[in-house]
Task: structure prediction
Amino acid sequence: MNLEEKIVAMLEVQEVFYEIVEHEPVYTNPAMAEALNVSESETVKSLVLKTKEGNMFVLVLPGNKKVDWKQAAAAAKTKKVSFAKPDEVSQAVGCEVGCVPPFGHLTQLPIYMDPDLTKKNFVYFNPGVHDKSFKVKAWDLKKLCNPTFI
Result:
């Protein structure tokens, strides 16, 4: 079962409403928002970060936000975090950088989330591929991720 199939299975088991939107391949949140004709803040940016101790986690943000490095490090209880290398991301989550889904628990990575994501009606995330986006209620995303808010 590939990553997208795992996500579909999880959504169906949890009885979460979702829509799959196919579009041209996108590699950034601005391009994703344009392809979906939504605001960038309605897209989900899922980043795999690594602590100086070598632990990885998923930081889930609205697509229009940038990483607050100090806040991310404090949440992970470390002094410094950085982007995980592309090969580390691929190995940890099963897809390449730019289409990481917000479900670190599918791979045992902790999830930290910006609470602003829960203020939207719907949000869109990549399911491990660049040419599809899943639309879910923001509240359902919170429920599915069970994140630590930062």
About this structure: The longest strand covers residues 44-51. The chain has a mean pLDDT of 94.
